TrEMBL record:
Superkingdom of the organism of origin: Bacteria
Protein's name according to its UniProt entry: Methyl-accepting chemotaxis protein
Disordered as annotated region, ranges: 1-20
Length: 109
């Protein structure tokens, strides 16, 4: 790579790059540029993934809220539908009691 040569006659050390050194440095710069681009793409994908995850989470929360409302509505409807059944059962009990009493009065007379 970088090679230090013997000092020149003035006594100052001389450094120079060989063509191979320049080629290696160019490859390093190219690799770093590509890595930087890849890192940027990964960061973009991470941001997009986070945003998509948040949207999915929001949708799930909305579905849960809707589901809770439907469940509550179904329960309320069941209670309303059950009231006439309870009333009808009570009416049937009262009528049966009246029939028994009428029979008892008819047989006593």
């Amino acid at each position: 790579m970088w090679r230090r040569t013997d000092p020149d006659p003035s006594g100052t050390p001389e450094t120079r790059a060989t063509p191979r050194d320049v080629e290696v440095l160019e490859r390093v710069v190219e690799a770093l540029t590509e890595a930087s681009t890849s890192i940027g793409e990964v960061e973009d994908l991470a941001r997009e993934t986070a945003a998509a995850t948040q949207r999915v989470s929001d949708r799930i929360a909305g579905i849960r809220t809707s589901s809770d409302r439907v469940t509550a509505g179904t329960h309320a409807t069941s209670e309303v539908v059950g009231r006439p059944d309870a009333v009808q059962a009570r009416i049937t009990d009262v009528l049966e009691e009246q029939v028994r009493m009428a029979r008892a009065v008819g047989s006593a007379a």
